[in-house]
Inverse folding.
């Protein structure tokens, strides 16, 4: 018989501390303003600054680089709390933590970490991640943005467009992926960190999105933009690998975000079915409603546990160097589809009130959808999982 092993679901004091900080900010500052930011689409600059001041914009970033110095589990717990208050705020937080800071921490030089991570992790500036292009979404290797090394080898000249850049309208620094050797395809992609205040950087209009409306998104364009060679992240031609490894971490953040919005929709529904009466009794006493509540609870718990497992796998990978792409994709796929399903059921149970902007259910429904799309669609997650399981391409 296999040897029995204890399963410990206890959180550390530090993990509970960051969760408590996130919950307090979420309830006191973010939740009361979420509907208005959603209505106007205004970027919540003051709230984002508050998140940074409390270590939430760089949770896994070491203290010496302006972060909180905690771990992936603490990050997931904090993300869930922020997303439960407002998905848009958690999107800004996710890109900062998972895509921008994580990539530089893992692949950047000491000088790059101090110069480009510190201000972003501390909340003084906002970071962004530029991989997607108008003609290349899931197929990142089809990108057209070019970075050509100058004759003297001192800088690259960048030309091209990137689309759907979260925090693009407000970001000070951007992690950019561009082709340095187009003939090599994915192996010809390199990564850079760029300053948006430099000449040649241009922002397009802010996208009018269905959900996460307070998370500013736009197209960005580079026209003869000069990026110093010392701003290249890692070796030339290693950008695709950097992008994919960063997305593994990012998918855990999106899974946590999905758990947060799913929890908010579930808890609102649980309160509603106890109070709303029909035919003289609470609608929560009807068997059809009870079946929906049971299914919502099961999907929420499964998503939560798989997200925490992925965060745990990431922690183990930091020590062993192993990949955790399967765990991240399983969590992202399960949590995002659970969020969409739970939000759908929540609107249905609330009936007409669920469809009204007077209640947050319709916002949860709109926000949940994006978790099935960005940082790898549900279809891409299924490909990642199946290919990792079978070893077939």
């Amino acid at each position: 018989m296999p040897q029995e092993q204890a399963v410990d679901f206890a959180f550390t004091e530090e993990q509970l501390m960051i969760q408590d900080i996130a919950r307090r900010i979420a309830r006191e500052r973010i939740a009361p303003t979420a509907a208005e930011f959603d209505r106007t689409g205004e970027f919540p600059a003051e709230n984002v600054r508050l998140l940074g001041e409390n270590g939430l914009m760089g949770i896994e970033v070491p203290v010496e680089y302006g972060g909180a110095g905690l771990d992936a589990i603490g990050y997931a717990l904090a993300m869930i709390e922020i997303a439960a208050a407002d998905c848009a705020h958690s999107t800004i937080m996710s890109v900062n933590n998972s895509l921008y800071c994580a990539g530089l921490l893992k692949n950047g030089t000491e000088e790059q970490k101090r110069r480009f991570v510190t201000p972003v992790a501390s909340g003084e500036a906002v970071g962004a991640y530029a991989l997607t292009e108008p003609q290349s979404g899931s197929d990142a290797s089809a990108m057209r943005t070019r970075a050509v090394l100058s004759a003297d080898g001192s800088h690259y000249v960048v030309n091209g467009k990137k689309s759907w850049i979260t925090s693009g309208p407000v970001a000070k620094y951007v992690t950019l992926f561009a082709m340095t050797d187009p003939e090599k395809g994915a192996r010809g992609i390199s990564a850079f960190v760029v300053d948006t205040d430099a000449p040649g950087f241009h922002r397009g209009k802010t996208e009018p999105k269905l959900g996460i409306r307070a998370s500013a998104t736009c197209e960005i364009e580079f026209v003869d933009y000069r990026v110093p060679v010392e701003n290249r992240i890692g070796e030339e031609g290693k950008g695709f690998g950097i992008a994919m490894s960063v997305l593994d971490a990012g998918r855990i953040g999106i899974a946590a975000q999905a758990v947060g919005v799913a929890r908010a929709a579930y808890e609102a529904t649980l309160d509603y079915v106890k109070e709303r009466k029909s035919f003289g009794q609470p609608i929560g006493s009807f068997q059809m409603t009870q079946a929906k509540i049971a299914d919502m609870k099961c999907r929420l718990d499964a998503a939560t546990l798989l997200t925490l497992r992925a965060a745990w796998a990431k922690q183990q990978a930091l020590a062993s160097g192993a990949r955790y792409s399967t765990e991240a994709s399983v969590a992202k796929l399960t949590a995002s589809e659970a969020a969409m399903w739970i939000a759908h059921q929540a609107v249905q149970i609330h009936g007409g009130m669920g469809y009204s902007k007077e209640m947050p259910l319709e916002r949860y429904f709109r926000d949940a959808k994006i978790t099935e799309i960005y940082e790898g669609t549900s279809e891409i997650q299924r490909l990642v999982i199946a290919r990792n399981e079978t070893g077939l391409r």
